[in-house]
Design brief:
single chain; 835 residues; alpha/beta; 5-stranded parallel sheet; 4-stranded mixed sheet; globular
Length: 835
């Protein structure tokens, strides 16, 4: 049968041993219907992947929950491991490459894995890490109860998909994707030797992967630029370097198939020094020597042919010299120039797809040659390809070398051709989802390089296949790329489909916020299109999101309310959450006795009285504190009554009543709390001094404002006398402003009685201030308030002396302000107290 359909001929043999060939697209039976509708179990939901209208999701019905999966037997594990190898290539079997100078590393790795230790194998690209992993896998077959599991970590940045891949490899759980809780519970029971090749994950993500599988021993093959694990992971480090000169010559002779000449030996020695002994460079160098032999006719027997039968002159001998050292270090251009045209076309496709080479069954359609599938084996023998998981991609450094010589000039056209081909292939009914999942990297690369029309078409057909194959990381990536391409192309219906699928995927992964956002976007787009079926499917999924949010809110423990006391029956109640068991608190700072303060003059703004306080003694050093006995494990909510500020029973009818309710003049204080029995502490002298200083400052500000206002309103009848006149008579003036309690002072101070009239010092002038009218004379308006009772602690003014400095009082009260008049300017000097 023609190889275009993916069938292999009878003479094709596997290259890696006796492993059976992977099933191709044409070998699988056709599906029953034209549309691929698959039913899955995702956590607690039943998911139906519908490529036409969008996936439908509903909760699992009682009694339909899947049973606990069983682990695979040894034969099933061997069959799955054979299917996970790279595909068998058509053509004659390639000779196996020897594993040189790796015996010590192999024995050390097997010994560490046998002890249950995890090892990180670090080596540059082309150092032979994959070949060493194959040798270790053969030696570790019977070490763990679940055998050896081979996984590919290429492109994996999060541990979720690796855990799902490990779960599906060990357990027989087809068409089932467990939730996170069940997944973590199942993978903890796995005891296997896990070989992770081309891992790109490290740090906390790698720690999470290893904590989730404590019974597994890992062999991680990474490059030196991969992020290292954390210090607490306890991963052994094994470094893989290059080969020695003798091993490099042996590897080169095995690749060429003949002994080397002296010239070739010297060239190989220089190449070993330049390439640091990387085995990949000598695989490529052996391919260069084989091509040179073919061009020089060393491998052909030309003795039977007579040179001049069909020609008038003898045929000239062709002599191709050895490659230079630069060509041996970067041989991609020279090797590509000597391969077949189909192989060069495959290299152009690989460069357009970011280094990913499609399966050899797709190359005849992509290249246009019915025998183009043999190009993969030709490129692999030249060292231009390397196996990665179940596929092949360009070797390290090959893509960059080929793009420099023009192989990437036709990348947009090649990517568009690959995208249209994969759009037809992934939507075909005969292609099973598992085959599409194996080609996921090439499909995603074609999707990224195609135009918006081809990208929308490919994403629309590939997304259901990725969902049905349980490769949900690729499903999410193709949905996001398709949504962006549909937005740019103006395809509203396709954009609504992609957002609906993203919402269903987020709901299956228990990301409710993301699911709500995506589903609401899809419902809005489908409502604009009048798509009733799609809108109904979106609203059903959105209802599950609401149920999940409600269940999450109800899962939080409720607060236990405590009944309020009898005193709180008439007023409102404020809920204050009190923890059941609290740590012993430090002793509160003791209150300070109130200091008298000047009372306001007007009755219009009375000062609110303070609620009675309770003095609490501080805890002495070394004293024992009684521990708090926890009441309950739940939180106790206390109901503290609040006394209403007004006693009005009916609603306010006027504006003044509304302001009276909002800003009451005489608010009623809350009932005092029960005092705690404690010993009164001695007064703190430092705090009393601070309170006295605060009172002195407030009084100085009041007096200063009064003096400035009187000075501005005085008449300008006579010029000022020469020379300053100082008055040291204390004059306490009643302020017309209202003193406001700032909340720091513990209690208002009593008023200070003022003399009946202002006393002017000798020499004080009442001359008018320049620029002001002399018509007004200073006057004192009578106070509208009745005479006040004498204060509790009267303050007697200091006697008038010739010394202008103020006289301090013995009680610590603020001293009167000294007023100095000079050239018609009134200056108030307040005493400065050292704090």
């Amino acid at each position: 049968m023609d190889r275009t359909h993916g069938q292999t001929e009878q003479h094709e043999q596997p290259t890696g041993g006796s492993a059976p060939a992977a099933p191709t697209a044409a070998a699988t039976p056709a599906a029953a219907g034209p549309a691929r509708v698959v039913s899955l179990t995702a956590g607690g939901f039943a998911l139906t992947v519908n490529p036409v209208d969008g996936s439908e999701i509903e909760p699992l019905r009682p009694g339909t929950e899947p049973a606990r999966p069983a682990k695979r037997a040894a034969a099933a594990r061997a069959a799955r491991a054979a299917a996970a190898r790279p595909p068998v290539l058509p053509g004659p079997a390639a000779p196996a490459r020897p594993l040189l100078e790796r015996e010590e590393e192999r024995e050390r790795l097997v010994r560490l894995l046998g002890r249950g230790r995890s090892v990180r194998l670090t080596g540059p690209s082309g150092s032979g890490r994959s070949a060493l992993l194959d040798a270790v896998a053969d030696r570790c077959e019977g070490l763990a109860p679940d055998g050896v599991v081979r996984l590919s970590g290429y492109g994996q940045q999060q541990p979720g998909e690796l855990l799902h891949a490990l779960y599906s490899t060990v357990y027989e759980a087809d068409q089932q994707r467990p939730g996170r809780a069940e997944l973590l519970a199942r993978v903890r029971e796995i005891g296997a030797v896990v070989l992770l090749d081309d891992l790109e994950m490290g740090g906390t993500a790698l720690d999470e992967l290893m904590r989730a599988t404590p019974e597994c021993a890992y062999l991680l093959a990474v490059t030196p630029d991969t992020r290292a694990p954390s210090d607490d992971s306890h991963v052994e480090e094994v470094f893989l370097g290059g080969l020695g000169k003798a091993d490099c010559l042996e590897l080169l002779e095995a690749g060429v198939g003949r002994p080397l000449t002296d010239e070739e030996t010297a060239w190989a020695g220089d190449l070993c020094f330049a390439s640091e002994g990387l085995p990949l460079r000598f695989v490529q160098a052996a391919a260069l020597l084989r091509q040179r032999d073919e061009l020089n006719h060393h491998a052909e027997d030309d003795e039977e042919e007579e040179p001049g039968v069909f020609e008038e002159r003898p045929r000239d001998a062709v002599h191709v010299p050895l490659p230079t050292l630069a060509e041996g270090a970067a041989p991609a251009e020279l090797l590509a120039s000597r391969v077949s045209e189909s192989a060069r076309a495959a290299l152009r496709i690989a460069c357009a797809l970011g280094g990913e080479l499609p399966h050899h069954a797709h190359l005849p359609a992509l290249v246009g040659d019915t025998h183009a599938d043999t190009a993969v084996a030709e490129l692999l023998a030249c060292g231009l390809l390397t196996p990665v998981g179940t596929r092949y991609r360009l070797a390290s450094g090959v893509a960059r070398q080929l793009e420099e010589v023009g192989y990437g000039d036709t990348a947009p056209e090649e990517a568009r051709t690959a995208a249209r081909h994969y759009a037809w292939w992934t939507g075909h009914a005969s292609v099973v989802p598992e085959r599409v999942a194996a080609e996921a990297d090439a499909v995603l690369a074609a999707l990224a390089g195609a135009d918006v029309v081809a990208a929308v078409l490919l994403a629309r057909t590939a997304a259901p296949a990725f969902a049905a194959s349980l490769h949900w990381e690729a499903w999410e990536r193709v949905l996001r790329s398709g949504a962006e391409a549909a937005r740019k192309a103006g395809e509203v219906a396709e954009q609504a489909y992609f957002h609906h699928e993203l919402g269903v995927l987020a709901l299956c992964e228990e990301r409710l916020d993301r699911a709500r956002a995506e589903l609401e976007t899809s419902i809005g787009l489908r409502g604009a299109l009048a798509d009733k079926r799609g809108t109904v499917a979106g609203r059903r999924a959105l209802a599950l999101v609401v149920d999940g949010e409600t269940a999450g809110a109800a899962a939080s423990p409720p607060l236990r309310l405590e009944a309020p006391g009898a005193a709180a029956a008439a007023g409102e109640a404020v809920t204050v959450a009190t923890p059941a068991a609290a740590a012993p608190k430090a002793a509160p700072v003791p209150k300070v006795a109130p200091v008298p303060k000047a009372a306001p003059v007007s009755k219009a703004a009375p000062v609110a009285s303070e609620a009675p306080t309770t003095k609490v003694a501080p805890v002495a050093p070394g004293a024992r504190v009684a521990p708090v006995v926890p009441v309950s494990a739940e939180a106790v909510t206390r109901m503290t009554p609040v006394v209403p500020v007004t006693g009005r029973s009916d609603a306010p009818t006027t504006l003044s009543e509304v302001f009276e309710d909002a800003f009451p003049l005489n608010p009623k204080p809350a009932p005092p709390a029960a005092p705690r029995p404690a010993v009164a502490p001695p007064p703190a002298p430092g705090r009393r001094r601070l309170v006295l200083l605060a009172g002195a400052g407030a009084l100085a500000v009041v007096v200063l404002g009064t003096v400035v206002s009187l000075a501005l309103s005085s008449s300008d009848s006579a010029p000022p006398e020469q020379g300053p006149a100082v008055s040291s008579t204390p004059a306490v003036t009643e302020s017309a402003t209202t003193t406001v309690n700032s909340g720091i002072d513990p209690a208002p101070e009593p008023p200070v009685s003022a003399p009946p009239a202002e006393t002017s010092a000798p020499g004080q002038s009442a001359a008018p201030t320049p620029g002001r009218s002399p018509a007004r004379t200073p006057s004192r308006r009578p106070s509208p308030t009745p005479p006040k009772s004498p204060p509790t602690t009267p303050v007697s003014p200091a006697p008038t002396t010739a010394d202008p400095s103020p006289t301090p009082t013995a009680t610590g009260e603020p001293t009167p302000t000294t007023t100095t008049t000079q050239t018609g300017t009134t200056t108030s000097v307040s005493p400065v107290t050292d704090r």
